Structures are given as structure tokens and as C-alpha cells.
Amino acid sequence: MVTAPQHASSIRPDSIPVIGSRIKGSNVVDPAGPLFDVYDPATGVITKRVSLASSDTVEQAVEVATSAWRSGWRDSSQKQRFSLVQRLHELVMERRDDLVNLIVFEHGKSLADARGEFDRAVDGLDSTLAFPVALQGAFSGQVARGIDIHSMPYSLGVVTTITPFNFPLMIPLWGAAAALVCGNTVIHKPSPRVPSAANLLAELIEEAGAPAGIYNVIQGDAIAVNALLDHPGVAAVAFVGSTPVAKHVYQRGTQAGKRVQALGSAKNHAVVMPDCDIAFTADSLIAGAYGSSGQRCMAVTLAVAVGPVADVLRAALVERIPALKTGRGFDEGVDLGPVVSKESQERIVDLVTQGESQGAEVIIDGRVLAAESEGFFVGPTLIDYVRPGQACYDNEIFGPVLGIVRVETLGEAIALIDSNPYGNGAAIFTSNGETARIFEREVAVGMIGVNVPVPVPVNSFTTGGWKGSAFGAHGLLGPEMYRFFTRTKMVTTRWPESGAPSMSMAFNPET
Ligand code: NAD
């Protein structure tokens, strides 16, 4: 049984802190506005409340960010931006424990998972130190006599990043660093379920020397998001979250004339071939399915067993899963923390129950822990005979549930993946290079692992899915992120002494 940690049980209901938005370095709480409860998912105790921003507060943030862009940040030197990222790196490293603890306390993930998130967050920050090269333009001299052309990436203005609960530091930091080095000013809208890392990150950006108002945080929900989407002063929206909201954000934002990228949900299949190394595959699937209690967009949720490997795989998983330790994220040795909320816990349990009534076999049942614990726990769950048409196949579960799907051939496995509405990640476990090559060339998803369960690319590449997992053309990292956060100016130059102007649109071929 999981019990309340000391730091949560000592908070009395009348002393629950209220977290506000952070605009130009100030905490902004709307005294009359609605409050959103933040829980310690390990105990189910309310620890904080978020003051949800009104559209007036959003207006204030857009004014501040617009003025900060116009009055300086768009013209900031590369050296100033470079120094900001370097200093931010130092401060983030100094506050590592605080950031990691905030993630564990509000999200619930294990210390090991939170440290992993921290490391990937810093990787993304560091990769932006390459921006002077990434943002170079092109130059063509003497395209006609006396005429040169150069292009230069230019900032967009005020951009907004809207982020999900499951990476409260990593995704906000990636977005912040990329948007700022491109010369934009930023309004970040985190998930109100995990509000604190966002505000601490904003403080660190300010402390690192950011001019006032270039980075702001709006704590809010749909009202704030819609106000940002409709506001003519916001040039671009980078969203990460669930597909229904991603679709809404994409449609409403583009209708308002903004540049929008919106990354959404996933249902990631791992194909298991009969020639795989079964111990390695079972260990990989367990890491990919149950890490962060399955609350990753790249979690492996379905093992597609080809032919006779299904029974062997099932036995290897059944042997290993009972060794996983579920408990408070702060406790050393814990593999799975709680899921983020009561609603998540109930949704996960319900999808497993529906799947069971539709013909799936629950082999290891994490619903038992859900029924027993005070916090929002679900134990690692394994289901066999999962197939399309069952609720546990058709929906993103976003919890510690791995399903085995049985098929006869690789072609059948690929067809299954391709007919799924999502296309975020997929993996194959095999010892045959040709099989792997066929898979990686044919399968219609954005991120593919060969004997790698969670194939999130390193930061010099990009991340982002296909089909219903992403709307808009750009990915979350690397060169595509720089393109998203800039627009290109092309400058054609002629100096008066270098030739007479022509009436024609074309450059004079004689010259
Ligand atoms: P969510 O869609 O509920 O929330 C995402 C953001 O949108 C939050 O800031 C939230 O406050 C806001 N929001 C929620 N409802 C809204 C509404 N009706 N109108 C406007 N804004 C709204 O997602 P979540 O539960 O926080 O995160 C989990 C989801 O994110 C999963 O589906 C997961 O697959 C996805 N995700 C995707 C990626 C990716 O790279 N594709 C990465 C991480 C998470």
C-alpha cells in the first residue's frame, strides 16, 4: 500500500499555495478567476492550485512579449543569444535537483525517469548552441551583372508553445531555447496539472540575462489556449498534446492566419519476429511499455507477435513483469510511479475492462493496484489477443498497459500499423537485416526503431509523427524547428553604379 509522503501530508487545506502566470518576471494571479487543483499523484492529496489565466491576462502577456520583441530581442546579436543559452545551461545544471523533484512531485514519474527527462531536456538546450550555423542564410553573387541575392532567416515575432503534462521540463525547454535563439519572444502555456517546472524555467531564463518580457508563462486551460490562438499578435503556435486538441489547435490557429505545428497522440506497435533475441526483446518491451508508467507519446503499447513467437514472448514477459516495482516516484528502486490523475487512472482501468469484455485476455492485471491505492496507481498490465475493434486497441491508453497482437506474417504486421490512424513510432525486433530494411522502408510512421523500443531521435535530427500524430509540416527538434521559428527574407541588391535598372521583371540577359 502506498502512503502519503511527509511533504504532502504537512500541507493544510487553508495554506495551499496558488501558482500564477509569470509575465515580465511577475507572478500574475487573477483574484476572481477559477483555480485548478494540482495533486501529488502518489497520494491523491491536493498540493497547489493554479490560477487559470483569463483572456485579459493573455492580452497582457501578448502586449509584453510584442513590446520585448519590437524594442530589442528581434535585433539582439548572436553573441547575446549564445550567452543566454550558455548561462541558462549553467543555471539549469545548478538547479537540477529542484527541477527533477518538481517533476516527480507533480507528474509522479520515478526519479530515474525524471532524471532521464532532465538529461534529454539539457541535450536539446545544448543543441541550440549550434544556431549561428543553423540560421545562416545563402548568398548568390552576380546573378545578373551587378546584382546579388542573399537570404536570411528572420524571427516571426511572438510565438507560443503549448505543452502536455508528461514532459513538464523537456518539451518546454526545447521550445523555449529554439524559439528564443531564432529571435522570437515567447509565451509558454504548460499543462496546469504540472505547472511548477514551467515557472521555475522562466525564472532561470530571466536570471540567465534574458531581457524583460522575452519569455513569459501563461498558466491556464482551454480559455487561455483559445485566446492565444485567436490573438492577432501571436505569429506561431507550437503545440504538443493529444490528437483531438492538436486538431483543434491546428484548425483554429491556421484559420487565424498563424503558423501552427501540432503534435498529437500515438499508438506505437513493436513487431516481434520469430528470429529476434527473445530475452533482449522482452526487456526492451518492458522498458518501452512501462517506463514513465506508459505516459510517453513514444511508449510501446502493442507487441505485434509474428507467427510462433507469440507464446514464447508471452512467457518471457510474464516471467519479468512481476519484478517491476510500483510506488512513489521519490523512492529509490521504483520502476513505475503513479499516473498523473484520477481521471487517467479511471480511463486506463476502463479501457482494459472494455478490452476484456471484447475478447482480450488480461494476463497480468494492474487494475488490482488501482482499486487498492490512495494515489493514482495502476500496476503494470499485460493483455493478450488484442485486436482492432477492441477499446484497448483503438484508443491511446497512456498508461502501463502492453497488449500482444497475434499475426501470421510481416506483411500483416505492416498493414496493421499502416491502417492505424496514428503514425508516431514503430519498432521491429529481428536479427535479420533484410527484414528490418523492408520494415523501415514500408511502414508509414515518423520514428522507427530497429531493435530499439523508444526510437526518439537525438536532437540534431527531428521528432514528429505522421498521420493523426502530427498536424502541420514541422517537427519538434533540430533544423525543422529552426525553420518553423523563422521566416526567410530574400534580398536582391544592385548598387546604382553597377548597371541601369530594367523595365522588365527578368534581369537583363545582356548584362
Ligand atoms: P492534452 O491534449 O490534454 O493537453 C495538452 C495541452 O493542451 C495542455 O497545455 C492543455 O492545458 C491544453 N488543452 C487541453 N484541453 C484543451 C482544450 N480543449 N482546448 C485547448 N487547449 C487544451 O494532452 P496531455 O494529456 O497533457 O498530454 C498527453 C498527450 O500528449 C498524449 O496524447 C500524448 O501522446 C501526447 N504527446 C505527444 C507527443 C508528441 O511528440 N507527439 C509528446 C508528448 C505527449
From TrEMBL:
GO molecular function: methylmalonate-semialdehyde dehydrogenase (acylating, NAD) activity
Aldehyde dehydrogenase domain boundaries: 35-491
Protein name in UniProt: methylmalonate-semialdehyde dehydrogenase (CoA acylating)
Keywords, comma-separated and alphabetical: NAD, Oxidoreductase
Enzyme Commission designation: 1.2.1.27
Cited Pfam families: Aldedh (PF00171)
GO terms under biological process: L-valine catabolic process; thymine catabolic process
